[in-house]
Amino acid sequence: PKLPAYHRVAAAVHSVGKVPLGIKRKGLRIVVTGGAGFVGSHLVDRLIARGDSVIVVDNFFTGRKENVMHHFGNPRFELIRHDVVEPLLLEVDQIYHLACPASPVHYKICRLLREIGVLNCVYKTNVVGTLNMLGLAKRVGARFLLTSTSEVYGDPLQHPQKETYWGNVNPIGVRSCYDEGKRTAETLTMDYHRGAGVEVRIARIFNTYGPRMCLDDGRVVSNFVAQALRKEPLTVYGDGKQTRSFQYVSDLVEGLIRLMEGEHVGPFNLGNPGEFTMLELAKVVQETIDPEARIEYRPNTEDDPHKRKPDIGRAKELLGWEPKVDLHKGLPLMVSDFRLRIFGDHKEGAT
Ligand code: NAD
Ligand code: UDP
Ligand code: UDP
Questions:
Q1: Which of 178, 192, 209, 248 is catalytic?
Q2: Are the beta carbons of 328 and 248 closer than 8 angstroms?
Q3: Which atom of ligand 1 lies closest to the CA of 182?
Q4: SS3 211
Q5: What is the whole-number distance in angstroms between the Cα of residue 164 and the centre of ligand 2?
Q6: 220 C-beta closer than 6 A to ligand 3
Q7: Is 132 touching ligand 2 by the criterion CB < 6 Å?
Q8: Which ligand 2 atom minimizes the distance to the CA of 192?
Q9: Is 87 in the pocket of ligand 2 (CB under 6 A)?
Q10: What ligand 3 atom has the least distance to the C-alpha of 242?
Q11: Helix residue spans in the chain (DSSP H)
């Protein structure tokens, strides 16, 4: 089928760009969707540092300009406010597709938005947003990396989870906009790979924490750290015996870059196999911030997975990757950032 006129113009411009005009471009041109978010902004830092040109595409639903502001004024950095649910024309070599609200609290906000007629949220972002970015990758011949999630394994019946496990997911539950959304995004990614020859990579990311996480996004590490700093009780949901495996953000970024640059499509689990119950996590937070911090039990959320731990054998073997920063080392790095953002430079929080 004939491309719309604007696509043809962009395609022509792109092919001209491929002709050597005597000016050798340094580095790659890379789009990071969701680049103003937590993981995205750390990835952008690495890409800029190694000399690439980076275009961040973000609608600031959960991301913040502050996360990337330090690159303003750098000619190799661009920031576009754009919702990936809408088509986007750019000429690039690689697409890291991260745009997606990533915390259960955001699914609730999305439900509220839907009630006032804003449909454009988690599921639509995963499906239509991913489709658009794959369409872009196909048109310009860019390599596309999807940040999928360990949630595709649902409430897993296999432990630890290997990439070959198909998962145990409720298709109509309150979390399904996210986990089924990501499963569909994986399907689309493989469809474009097999059907249109797009070079793709799939990462299944396990719980990740670090500086620049949203202060109030409801995820357990950010909740506990903010609560302990504010001298509020740590809210443990359910009996606190459910487990998660927590990865520090620099390890994840290293894994994502290795995956993008490597030869293998994946999917690859990227996570830290160190597994903790929520009560054990609360204890590490108490030891790091405030041994006096109290614990308060709250009812658990619906469909909460009982346990989760990655088998990272495939990433170790094929990407030569494994995490280096354990929770005891990573948590204090996040705490300094949270302390600064909660209390500013004032003395009160600097205990
Ligand atoms: P985040 O909320 O900090 O970042 C997501 C970014 O995407 C935000 O900047 C947000 O504004 C942007 N965004 C959301 N919807 C958009 C849209 N329609 N158009 C344009 N931009 C949009 O979350 P994060 O933790 O940095 O997660 C990044 C990616 O990694 C997500 O795809 C998430 O599903 C995946 N992931 C994260 C974790 C984790 O533990 N952090 C675990 C598994 C998967
Ligand atoms: N798309 C985009 N940017 C591009 C090329 C495509 O946003 O540079 C969008 C396009 O609008 C479409 C989606 O990606 O909605 C899928 O594109 P594709 O060409 O694969 O499918 P088609 O347009 O043929 O349905
Ligand atoms: N959780 C908790 N207290 C909180 C927030 C979350 O005990 O204040 C629990 C939650 O019920 C889940 C685990 O921590 O069992 C991880 O939740 P999170 O939302 O961080 O990640 P996900 O469920 O997406 O893995």
A1: 178
A2: no
A3: 34
A4: coil
A5: 30
A6: yes
A7: yes
A8: 20
A9: yes
A10: 15
A11: 5-18, 38-49, 104-115, 122-124, 130-140, 176-196, 220-229, 249-261, 278-288, 313-319, 327-343
**In the predicted structure, residue 17 carries a pLDDT above the cut 80:** no
63 lines ligand 1 (CB under 6 A): yes
CB of 243 closer than 8 Å to CB of 304: no
Query: Is the CB–ligand 1 distance for residue 98 below 6 Å?
Result: yes
Q: Which residue(s) pair with 148 in the sheet?
A: 204
Q: Is 213 helix (H, G, I), strand (E, B) or coil?
A: coil
Strand partners of residue 244:
276
Query: Would you call 178 a catalytic residue per the annotation?
Result: yes
Q: How far is Cα of residue 223 from the mean position of the Cα atoms in its chain?
A: 18
Residues sharing a CB contact under 8 Å with residue 348, sequence separation 6 or more, in sequence order = none
Q: Which tokens is 157 given?
A: 């019946």
The whole-angstrom separation of Cα 351 and Cα 347 is: 8
How far is Cα of residue 228 from the mean position of the Cα atoms in its chain?
Answer: 25
**Using one digit for the tens of pLDDT, what is the confidence trace for 27-63?**
899 999 999 999 999 999 999 999 999 999 999 998 9
- Choose the weakest-confidence range: 12-26, 58-72, 208-222, 289-303: 12-26
Tokens for 221, please give them.
Answer: 């590490």
pLDDT tens-digit map of 145-182: 999 999 999 999 999 999 999 999 999 988 888 999 99
Residue with tokens 């937590």: 38
301: Cβ below 6 Å to ligand 3?
Answer: yes
What is the residue with the minimal CA distance to atom 15 of ligand 1?
100
Which of 37, 163, 10 has its CA nearest to residue 96?
37
Residue 240 φ/ψ region, left for φ over 0, alpha for ψ in the -120 to 50 degree band, beta for the rest:
left
Other CB atoms within 10 Å distance of the CB of residue 301: 15
- Provide the ipTM: 0.97
Name the residue of 9, 55, 97, 138 to mutate for ligand 2: max ligand atoms within 8 A of Cβ: 138
